[in-house]
């Protein structure tokens, strides 16, 4: 669980050499109505680990660290051979930080972490928060790099065929062939796409929507069977939970295409709900 205090803005990007910037965190979702500040579910773009990230811009609490401190807090249940244990370890500390400053920042960070857990583990948010924090690490894959590779391919094609495509004679020939073909070729009604009976959506796991040469988008269909550990009955209607294909789902504010973090159902984006 990370506590990130920033003076303004919600950017999670860190500069690198040159004029470009590389994002270090992928924002999954933002919690609303949090008095502490802007609280996000994030995934590290390099390691794929999940965490909660707080930009403490709210009025409370008045905690603003002046040194960098990374802590690891662990708790162990009691066994037959040893009592229960709680361990606090400093993983990274600023070299020029004094002992008093480190102790003060560590105490304030633990207090903020407690408030973050209380704010995100309410009755309506418990399942979604735990599903995010307990998700396995998933490093950045080829899907997240598809746009960069597509832009690189377009630049190569532009350099190769740019001079030819700007020729006036070839442009006129292409326009004439297109107009002539539209009159000579018969119009055929496209065959309907195979449906799995779920609102006219095509069968299969992936659905590409609103794709353009600049930004191909993708969506994941809601699976026909619930995930392992997903809530499958007694969906809470007061918490906007819906029963879809045998599992409980909650619609998000995003509209299709939903990307690779959410799932599509009848033009809306959903996320699964786990057992409480």
Explain this structure:
The structure is a single chain. This protein has 276 residues and is an alpha+beta fold. The protein is built from four helices and 14 strands. It is extended and about 85 Å long. A hairpin with a 2-residue loop joins strand 13 (263-265) and strand 14 (268-272). The strands form four sheets. A six-stranded mixed β-sheet has the order 9-10-13-14-12-11, with no helix packed on it. A four-stranded mixed β-sheet has the order 1-6-5-4, with helices on one face. The two termini are 20 Å apart.
Concise overview:
The chain has 276 residues and is of the alpha+beta class.
Main attributes of the structure:
four-stranded mixed sheet, 26% strand, 276 residues, 4 helices, six-stranded mixed sheet, alpha+beta, extended, 24% helix, disordered N terminus, single chain
For the termini, the CA-CA separation is 20 Å
Oligomer designation = single chain
Order of helices and strands: EEEEEEEEHHHHEEEEEE
Structural class: alpha+beta
The general outline is: extended
Give the fraction of residues assigned to helices: 10-25%
Radius of gyration: 25 Å
Strand content range: 25-35%
DSSP helix count? 4
The total beta strand count reads 14
Low-pLDDT residue spans: 3-22, 189-213
Mean pLDDT: 75
Q: Strands of the largest sheet, in order across it?
A: 9-10-13-14-12-11
State the major sheet.
6 strands, mixed
């Amino acid at each position: 669980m990370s506590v990130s205090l920033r003076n303004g803005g919600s950017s999670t990007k860190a500069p690198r050499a040159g004029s470009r910037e590389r994002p270090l965190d992928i924002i999954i979702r933002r919690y609303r109505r949090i008095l502490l500040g802007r609280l996000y579910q994030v995934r590290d773009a390099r390691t794929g680990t999940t965490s909660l990230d707080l930009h403490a811009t709210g009025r409370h609490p008045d905690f603003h660290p002046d040194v960098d401190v990374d802590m690891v807090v662990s708790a162990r249940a009691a066994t037959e051979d040893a009592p229960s244990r709680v361990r606090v370890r400093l993983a990274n500390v600023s070299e020029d930080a004094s002992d008093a400053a480190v102790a003060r920042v560590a105490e304030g960070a633990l207090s903020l972490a407690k408030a973050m857990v209380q704010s995100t583990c309410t009755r309506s948010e418990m399942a979604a928060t735990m599903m995010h924090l307990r998700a396995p690490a998933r490093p950045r894959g080829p899907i997240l790099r598809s746009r960069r590779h597509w832009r690189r391919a377009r630049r190569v094609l532009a350099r190769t065929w740019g001079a030819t495509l700007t020729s006036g004679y070839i442009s006129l020939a292409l326009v004439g062939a297109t107009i002539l073909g539209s009159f000579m070729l018969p119009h055929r009604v496209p065959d309907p796409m195979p449906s799995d009976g779920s609102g006219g959506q095509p069968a299969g796991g992936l659905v590409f929507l609103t794709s353009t040469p600049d930004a191909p988008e993708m969506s994941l269909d809601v699976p026909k069977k619930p995930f392992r550990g997903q809530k499958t009955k007694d969906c809470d209607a007061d918490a906007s939970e819906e029963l879809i294909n045998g599992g409980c789902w909650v619609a998000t504010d995003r509209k299709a295409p939903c990307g690779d973090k959410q799932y599509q159902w009848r033009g809306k984006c959903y996320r699964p709900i786990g057992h409480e």
